[in-house]
Amino acid sequence: MNRTGPQALPALAQRRILHLPDRGRFLIWDTSGPPQAPVLVLLHGATLNAELNWSGVITTLAPYYRVITLDLRGHADGLRSSRFRLEDCADDIAALSAALGIDRVIPVGFSMGGFISQLLWRQHRDLVAGLVLCSTARNVCGSPLERAVAMILPSALTAAAWSPAFYPLGADILGAALLDHDLDAAGRAWALTQMRRTTLLSALGAAQAACHFSSHDWVETIDVPTASIVTMRDQVVPPRRQYKLAHALPNNTVIEVDADHGTFLSAPSRFATALLAACDAVSGEAGAPGQAQMVTAS
Hints:
Layout: E1 14-20, E2 24-31, E3 39-43, H1 50-54, H2 58-61, E4 66-70, H3 86-99, E5 106-110, H4 112-123, E6 131-134, H5 144-162, H6 172-175, H7 185-195, H8 200-212, E7 226-231, H9 239-248, E8 252-257, H10 263-266, H11 268-283, E9 293-295
Parallel strand pairs: 3-4, 3-5, 5-6, 6-7, 7-8, 8-9
Antiparallel strand pairs: 1-2, 2-4
């Protein structure tokens, strides 16, 4: 089903501003959820932002969970920094959780956000109660083409940093490829507008950081419940790579969705249904993990 138009973050997501020492200003969206509900922290993909990646799922998740989301550093309203590092993003989430008085969270990471979720477990294990990993992998540099792109990115980033002509350009130049081909015109226009809130320079930095990420050597040691949402028609993160991550996780539920990488925008209700099932599996709301599911909700 094609989107019929853009969708902002729902009103129940309360906008809050926090100032963290040695980090800066955090703009977050926080839904309270039921008393004592598990806390989800939604982490978006590269070139995206919280509104674009997650606006279609919060209403589905909020009756059961406290849901927190934010723009990652370098993206839209996120923290500004001279260098983008996935490890710094993970530390940002830990610092934010401490400021909010939250002891345990379930990171929900989409694409690059899945890398940050894995790093959050590695760097702050006591904080992470489980992981939900969507359209993501153990790395993105396996094929010869991907390795070639990874080699080119540092030069592209340097050129962008030194040339004033690059400064006005937005992340939509890279991010447009993430969108489903069957996305309707209104949805595509809104998505590209959201992507332009992130500079091309920041997007290149995020892409370079993502190319350097690999959890091959330690992903099998993740000792919390996990769930993988596999987008089966994904042309950005190939399904075979998503399955490799899913099979490497020792305590994992696999939820398959017949969709492309941009399902969060082209089929938000289907994505939300899959995401709720994944969160329930990790939080213990829907039986033991380890059972593969096929989600076909429209």
